[in-house]
Specification:
The complex is a heterodimer of chains A (about 160) and B (about 270). Chain A has about 160 residues and is of the alpha/beta class. Chain A has a single domain, classed as Rossmann fold (3-Layer(aba) Sandwich). Chain A has a four-stranded parallel β-sheet with strand order 2-1-3-4, with helices on both faces. In chain A, helix 2 crosses helix 5. Chain A starts with a helix and ends with a helix. In chain B, strands 1, 2, 3, 4, 5 and 6 form a six-stranded mixed β-sheet that branches. By secondary structure, chain B is an alpha/beta fold. Chain B has two domains: about 120 residues, no CATH class; about 120 residues, no CATH class. Classes of the chains: A alpha/beta (about 160), B alpha/beta (about 270). Chains A and B meet through helix 3, helix 4, strand 4 and helix 7 of A and helix 5, helix 6, helix 8 and helix 10 of B.
């Protein structure tokens, strides 16, 4: 039985892929403005949010991240003109795919943070960490097994 | 139907450098390049086997040759996706389209059992096209499951995986020389039941905009993992969000490689 104290003790680990030109500078800007952003974020600087492959996001989860953020330039502001157009399609589809396999899609978030948007960086990171804290540890979500449920019936149906 | 195809192939062999089709010998059945003078009575249509990758490899090896191929509906869809990804030259390909029967369509839950010959400069159809079969009822059933039930289901399925790479090898649209599924950076070698289903999630993600619903992966899987339930769901998403149906339209490019102007997605973040 999970107690309230356990929930309190859980500090989410969040990997954030930040684009070099906007979001990484946005994080800097948040720091310079002395805005509080959670220490749960592990930033990984990439040259473009378009560089973030689904493999990288999945590996972050495999390595124990409870949540993954992909932050990049706003559409139209991409340093590489339209590379982030691919990011939005890729991450949206990956979120859906996670949902279909039963991994909470809310654990992956995509947002745009420009280099001047320090306050937005602080806000989206804070909101996301709170969200992941509510969801609880990833390991718990994945280890949780259902008792004899309709799943077994379904498995039998599929495999004959 | 088989005789009609054999006759057509032997006639076309006079002009073509070869025709890719299944050949049945004492050793078994496999895709082969039939050439003029070969015994076309060995040409068979069953079992269903994807030919797109064989065609691609032959075209790359013989740069000036013009080949033919005996293709079903799923094969032509796969060939279209391969053309878009510059793996097949449509001008050097002749297609013998083979219309699947109603029973075959039902077994595959195939929405388009008739080969689409419009995109091809040179093609003939053999057999009578039948309408599409109803979709896999498992998919609708699966959509009603809660998140916990879904995870439990796939966890059980992925645990059965023996990582034989059969689903990738048979896939008619998986062609990369360097495969991330073989890269220890992404998929840990020697680990059969990983903590996190990297192999299957990466495979599914790579299938999003190219899976032509041929269901060969599921047929090939020795563990009986119902992969197409997952792929059908993401195919539906790609259709709803981006309006793209892999293999259907030869003129629209792979949407994940295009800008939002060329392939928009229905998302708040895309504005």
């Amino acid at each position: 039985m999970e107690t309230n104290e356990d929930k309190q003790a859980f500090e989410p680990k969040v990997v954030a892929f930040l684009c070099n030109w906007c979001s990484y500078a946005g994080a800097d800007s948040a720091g310079i403005s002395r805005l509080k952003s959670p220490a749960n974020i592990l930033p990984i600087r990439v040259m473009c949010s378009g560089r973030v492959s689904p493999e990288m996001i999945l590996r972050a989860f495999r390595s124990g991240a409870d949540g993954v953020m992909v932050l990049g330039c706003h559409i139209g502001d991409c340093h590489y003109i339209d590379a982030n157009h691919r990011t939005v399609k890729r991450v949206t589809l990956l979120q859906n795919l996670l949902g279909y396999t039963g991994i909470n899609p809310d654990r992956l978030v995509l947002d745009w943070v420009s280099s001047s948007e320090g306050p937005k960086f602080a806000k989206v990171t804070r909101k996301f960490v709170e969200k992941v804290r509510e969801l609880g540890p990833m390991a718990e979500e994945m280890g949780k097994s259902l008792p004899a449920s309709k799943i077994n019936v379904l498995v039998e149906e599929v495999t004959g | 139907m088989i005789q009609e195809i054999r006759d057509l192939v032997s006639e076309k062999l006079k002009k073509l450098d070869g025709v890719v089709a299944l050949r049945k010998t004492d050793q078994g059945t496999a895709p082969t390049l039939f050439q003029e003078g070969d015994d076309v009575s060995q040409l068979v249509l069953e079992p269903r086997y994807p030919v797109a990758k064989t065609v691609s490899k032959l075209q790359k090896r013989f740069k000036d040759a013009k080949f033919g191929v005996v293709a079903r509906g799923c094969d032509t869809r796969a060939l279209v996706e391969m053309v878009k990804r510059h793996q097949i030259d449509p001008d050097r390909l002749y297609i013998v389209g083979m219309a699947c029967s109603e029973e075959q369509a039902e077994t595959c839950y195939c929405a388009e059992p008739a080969p689409d010959l419009d995109p091809w400069p040179e093609a003939d159809l053999v057999g009578d096209p039948v309408p599409g079969a109803p979709p896999n009822p498992m998919v609708a059933e699966y959509e009603n499951l809660s998140r916990e039930e879904r995870w439990d289901f796939w966890n059980q399925q992925f645990t059965k995986c023996i990582k034989c790479y059969g689903c990738r090898d048979i896939c008619p649209v998986c062609f990369c020389d360097a495969c991330s599924l073989e890269d220890p950076l992404w998929v840990e070698p020697g680990l059969l039941v990983p903590d996190f289903p990297m192999y299957h999630l990466i495979k599914a993600m790579h299938m999003t905009t190219r899976c032509v619903a041929c269901r060969q992966c599921e047929t090939a899987c020795p563990a009986g993992i119902p992969l197409t339930v997952l792929y059908d769901l993401i195919r539906k998403d790609v259709g709803n969000l981006i309006g793209y149906i892999p293999g259907a339209d030869a003129d629209s490019g792979p949407p994940l490689s295009l800008t939002l102007a060329d392939a928009p997605i229905d998302s708040e973040l895309a504005k």
